[in-house]
């Protein structure tokens, strides 16, 4: 590997890392603003213009709090817990393709570096690996606290993550069957034309994946590991100072990364309609290097637009849908999502046999019709209250 | 001594990686056995699986590495940790350290050692001839190659193993199933 390419890669990785942290920090601000908007309040508006310095103020407060370790806690594991949560959250963005590539001249040699941490031919499996490790941070921290509530939160988190990982994996398999590759870049490139975005060919898989992403991030309506009404603070009851900050921060990084994955897998990644036309027009007018880089920058910005939409969607759902009960959560995961995703795989496979890409719509339409008929047939709420 | 140092000078970066990984693997594997607290033991086992995945990557078997992490470190060890957390084995459990168990473990360990030694002695002659630097195919461990092999040459064992897994799953469901009239928790 050339030293120039290596340093260019290093710079790209560093920039992506900083962007991840910045977005996670400002997601906390965005979350509070979104909550305030949905509840007809103002939200943070004291620190800086529109409260923009709020994340910095929060981090400063976190650092100056007393860093407390309970007497009966297992000290090293207590410290390891938040570190693991942060580590696994940061690892997963390495394989996301954020844009096409950057071209530059150095020493009269032209280079082309893809805008991606690393291009793995097992990108999807890498994500599964990291996602399945994500639960260790919560489990280790919850157990090490030596607190019944923390342990219960940790155990809830573990069983929830294991249950929803299966449906998550099965829903992606339908995409893998259509793409025929485990590399995220080829999955993105497969969705070059607008109507072949996987959200149009795999509507059911998208809904299953979205639901599982909520569960894997421990976001409402699936935030039972930190259910305040039952478990005080859940797995981080005993945590304070920046260790607590790491747990909360890891949640926002996970949210960013899963938004990026949803956009990559189902919404064409960095592709947008007429991308090739825009790219060739820019290259014609501004030269192969500058034009190509500007085209890549446009892709990058639009990709982040998609990511921001999904981050907002996460917040929107959080302040709209109430929390599930634990048995409802398990029933949804094991009795609805897993059978549905297996059915989706079968139907998609049958469709591919006859070169019909939109086979997944068959189940989606049947489900919509079923939902409508059951709601029409169901007895009205007013009648029920009158009878009782 | 100088020979020993020269050995390190001749190593490629991959060689250094291999040595470091091997040291880590052995260290964490010993940790699994020596840790007094079962939780530490499980965590050391997870670290061992990670090091093994590193070895797979060095051998260019990326698929095996990823699956090792997903299945062993990500699923099976989570369940192990889960169970041990419920048992709450914080204090030393003296019951599991009677003379009988000690003797049994010595016998089992000795047998394993004998088996490993015989395997290595028998294989030693073949290994040098079967895979040398020139005949080694770097694509062996890649997904495409593996998938092709599994669905062509090894289709029968592959399907049999999946039936076996199905049987195990049905058995587990049968054991865990609530009979009519059982108590609901």
Automatic annotation (TrEMBL), chain A:
<keyword id="KW-0812">Transmembrane</keyword>
<comment type="function">
    <text>NDH-1 shuttles electrons from NADH, via FMN and iron-sulfur (Fe-S) centers, to quinones in the respiratory chain. The immediate electron acceptor for the enzyme in this species is believed to be ubiquinone. Couples the redox reaction to proton translocation (for every two electrons transferred, four hydrogen ions are translocated across the cytoplasmic membrane), and thus conserves the redox energy in a proton gradient. This subunit may bind ubiquinone.</text>
</comment>
<keyword id="KW-0560">Oxidoreductase</keyword>
<dbReference type="GO" id="GO:0016655">
    <property type="term" value="F:oxidoreductase activity, acting on NAD(P)H, quinone or similar compound as acceptor"/>
</dbReference>
<dbReference type="GO" id="GO:0009060">
    <property type="term" value="P:aerobic respiration"/>
</dbReference>
<feature type="transmembrane region" description="Helical">
    <location>
        <begin position="6"/>
        <end position="29"/>
    </location>
</feature>
<keyword id="KW-1278">Translocase</keyword>
<keyword id="KW-1133">Transmembrane helix</keyword>
<comment type="subunit">
    <text>NDH-1 is composed of 14 different subunits. Subunits NuoA, H, J, K, L, M, N constitute the membrane sector of the complex.</text>
</comment>
<feature type="transmembrane region" description="Helical">
    <location>
        <begin position="76"/>
        <end position="98"/>
    </location>
</feature>
<feature type="transmembrane region" description="Helical">
    <location>
        <begin position="360"/>
        <end position="378"/>
    </location>
</feature>
<feature type="transmembrane region" description="Helical">
    <location>
        <begin position="166"/>
        <end position="188"/>
    </location>
</feature>
<keyword id="KW-0520">NAD</keyword>
<dbReference type="InterPro" id="IPR018086">
    <property type="entry name" value="NADH_UbQ_OxRdtase_su1_CS"/>
</dbReference>
<keyword id="KW-0874">Quinone</keyword>
<keyword id="KW-0830">Ubiquinone</keyword>
<dbReference type="GO" id="GO:0003954">
    <property type="term" value="F:NADH dehydrogenase activity"/>
</dbReference>
<protein>
    <recommendedName>
        <fullName>NADH-quinone oxidoreductase subunit H</fullName>
        <ecNumber>7.1.1.-</ecNumber>
    </recommendedName>
</protein>
<dbReference type="InterPro" id="IPR001694">
    <property type="entry name" value="NADH_UbQ_OxRdtase_su1/FPO"/>
</dbReference>
<feature type="transmembrane region" description="Helical">
    <location>
        <begin position="294"/>
        <end position="317"/>
    </location>
</feature>
<keyword id="KW-0472">Membrane</keyword>
<dbReference type="GO" id="GO:0048038">
    <property type="term" value="F:quinone binding"/>
</dbReference>
From TrEMBL, chain B:
<keyword id="KW-0520">NAD</keyword>
<feature type="transmembrane region" description="Helical">
    <location>
        <begin position="40"/>
        <end position="59"/>
    </location>
</feature>
<comment type="similarity">
    <text>Belongs to the complex I subunit 6 family.</text>
</comment>
<feature type="transmembrane region" description="Helical">
    <location>
        <begin position="100"/>
        <end position="120"/>
    </location>
</feature>
<feature type="transmembrane region" description="Helical">
    <location>
        <begin position="154"/>
        <end position="175"/>
    </location>
</feature>
<keyword id="KW-0472">Membrane</keyword>
<keyword id="KW-0874">Quinone</keyword>
<dbReference type="InterPro" id="IPR001457">
    <property type="entry name" value="NADH_UbQ/plastoQ_OxRdtase_su6"/>
</dbReference>
<dbReference type="GO" id="GO:0005886">
    <property type="term" value="C:plasma membrane"/>
</dbReference>
<keyword id="KW-1133">Transmembrane helix</keyword>
<dbReference type="InterPro" id="IPR042106">
    <property type="entry name" value="Nuo/plastoQ_OxRdtase_6_NuoJ"/>
</dbReference>
<feature type="transmembrane region" description="Helical">
    <location>
        <begin position="65"/>
        <end position="88"/>
    </location>
</feature>
<dbReference type="GO" id="GO:0008137">
    <property type="term" value="F:NADH dehydrogenase (ubiquinone) activity"/>
</dbReference>
<keyword id="KW-1003">Cell membrane</keyword>
<keyword id="KW-0812">Transmembrane</keyword>
<dbReference type="Pfam" id="PF00499">
    <property type="entry name" value="Oxidored_q3"/>
</dbReference>
<protein>
    <recommendedName>
        <fullName>NADH-quinone oxidoreductase subunit J</fullName>
        <ecNumber>7.1.1.-</ecNumber>
    </recommendedName>
</protein>
<feature type="transmembrane region" description="Helical">
    <location>
        <begin position="15"/>
        <end position="33"/>
    </location>
</feature>
<comment type="function">
    <text>NDH-1 shuttles electrons from NADH, via FMN and iron-sulfur (Fe-S) centers, to quinones in the respiratory chain. Couples the redox reaction to proton translocation (for every two electrons transferred, four hydrogen ions are translocated across the cytoplasmic membrane), and thus conserves the redox energy in a proton gradient.</text>
</comment>
<dbReference type="GO" id="GO:0048038">
    <property type="term" value="F:quinone binding"/>
</dbReference>
């Amino acid at each position: 590997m050339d030293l120039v390419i290596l340093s260019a890669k290093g710079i790209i990785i560093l920039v992506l890392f900083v962007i991840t942290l910045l977005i996670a920090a400002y997601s906390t601000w965005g979350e509070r603003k979104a909550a305030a908007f949905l509840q007809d309040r103002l939200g943070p508006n004291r620190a800086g213009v529109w409260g923009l310095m709020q994340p910095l103020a929060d981090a400063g407060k976190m650092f100056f709090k007393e860093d407390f370790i309970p007497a009966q806690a297992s000290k090293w594991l207590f410290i390891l817990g938040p570190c693991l949560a942060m580590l696994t959250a940061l690892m997963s963005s390495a394989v996301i393709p954020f844009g096409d590539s950057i071209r530059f001249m150095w020493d009269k040699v032209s280079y082309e570096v893809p805008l991606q941490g690393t291009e793995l031919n097992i990108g999807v499996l890498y994500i599964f690996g990291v996602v399945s490790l994500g639960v260790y941070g919560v489990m280790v921290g919850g157990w090490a606290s030596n607190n019944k509530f923390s342990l219960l939160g940790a155990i809830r988190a573990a069983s929830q993550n294991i249950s929803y990982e299966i449906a998550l994996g099965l829903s992606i398999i339908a995409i893998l069957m259509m793409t025929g590759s485990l590399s995220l870049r080829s999955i993105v490139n497969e969705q070059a034309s607008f109507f072949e975005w996987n959200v149009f060919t795999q509507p059911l898989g998208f809904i299953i994946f979205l639901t599982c992403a909520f569960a894997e991030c421990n976001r409402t309506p699936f935030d039972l590991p930190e259910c305040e009404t039952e478990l005080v603070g859940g797995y981080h009851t005993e945590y304070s100072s920046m260790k607590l900050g790491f747990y909360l921060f890891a949640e926002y990084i996970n949210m960013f990364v899963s938004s990026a994955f949803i956009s990559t897998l189902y919404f064409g990644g960095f592709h947008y309609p007429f991308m090739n036309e825009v790219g060739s027009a820019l290259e014609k007018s501004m030269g192969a290097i500058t034009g190509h880089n500007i085209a890549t920058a446009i892709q990058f910005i639009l990709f982040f637009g998609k990511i921001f939409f999904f981050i907002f969607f996460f917040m929107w759902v959080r302040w709209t849908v109430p929390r599930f009960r634990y048995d409802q959560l398990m029933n949804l995961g094991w009795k609805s999502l897993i059978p549905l995703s297996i059915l989706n795989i079968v139907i998609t496979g049958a469709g591919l046999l006859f070169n019909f890409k939109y086979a997944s719509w068959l189940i989606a339409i049947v489900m919509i019709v079923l939902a409508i008929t059951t709601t029409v047939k169901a007895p009205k709420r007013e009648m029920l209250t009158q009878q009782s | 001594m100088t020979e020993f140092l020269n050995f390190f000078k001749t190593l490629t970066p991959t060689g250094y990686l291999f040595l470091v990984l091997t040291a880590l693997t052995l260290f964490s594997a010993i940790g699994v056995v020596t840790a007094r607290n079962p939780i530490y033991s499980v965590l050391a086992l997870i670290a061992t699986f990670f090091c093994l995945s590193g070895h797979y990557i060095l051998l260019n078997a990326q698929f095996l590495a990823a699956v090792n992490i997903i299945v062993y470190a990500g699923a099976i060890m989570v369940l192990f940790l889960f169970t041990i957390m419920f048992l709450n084995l914080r204090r030393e459990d003296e019951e599991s350290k009677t003379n009988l168990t000690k003797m049994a473990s010595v016998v089992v360990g000795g047998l394993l050692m004998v088996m490993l030694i015989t395997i290595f002695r028998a294989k030693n002659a073949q290994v040098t001839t079967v895979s040398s630097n020139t005949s080694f195919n770097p694509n062996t461990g890649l997904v495409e190659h593996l998938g092709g092999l599994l669905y062509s040459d090894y289709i029968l064992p592959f399907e049999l193993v999946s039936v076996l897994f199905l049987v195990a799953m049905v058995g587990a469901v049968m054991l865990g199933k609530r009979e009519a009239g059982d108590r609901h928790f």
